[in-house]
Amino acid sequence: MKVERNLVRNLARTADILNTINGGMSQTTIKIHSLENEWLIKVKTPGVELENLRLEVLDSHLYIHQMMEIDQNSPEKAPYVIAMIPLIKQINVEEISATFEDGWTLIRLPFDEMVNGLDRQIKIVRR
Q: β-strands 77-86, 124-126: how paired?
């Protein structure tokens, strides 16, 4: 049984690598946990450098996007939306924080019953 699991795991990794090499993109993993005082969103973006990852709150949504080169001959980049997560009004937008640990971007969205939403950009801190 263990051999079969390892085989499946290795095939999945190979498919992911081949997909990326052949011009595809690795699949982003997003996990949302509702805790007592906050939402915790875990995002894994294989192949995306932290410097190219952006988090932004606009119109009561959390946008997770990466900056991608428009053309190989141009230094300009354009945003590619990875995910758009609707936010409830009880999220304290001013206190949203993000860290990068062990290949995961951890986004903490604390609750505050007294707030009713704002727009802002969130800086990701490398640990």
A: unpaired
Contact (Cβ atoms closer than 8 angstroms) between residue 29 and residue 14: no
Q: What is the DSSP string of 20-35?
A: HHTT--PPPEEEEEE-
Q: In the CATH scheme, what architecture does the domain 26-126 have?
A: Sandwich (2.60)
Report H helices in 22-103.
Answer: none
Q: How many residues can be counted in the chain?
A: 127
pLDDT digits (tens, 9 = 90+) for 55-99: 999 988 999 999 888 877 878 888 888 999 999 888 999 999 999
The residues, ordered by sequence, that sit 6+ positions from 100 with a Cβ below 8 Å of its Cβ are 50, 106, 124, 125, 126, 127
Chain segment 11-52, per-residue pLDDT in tens? 455 545 545 554 566 788 999 999 999 999 999 999 888 999
> Distances from the Cα of 2 to the Cαs of 6, 9, 13, in angstroms?
6, 11, 17
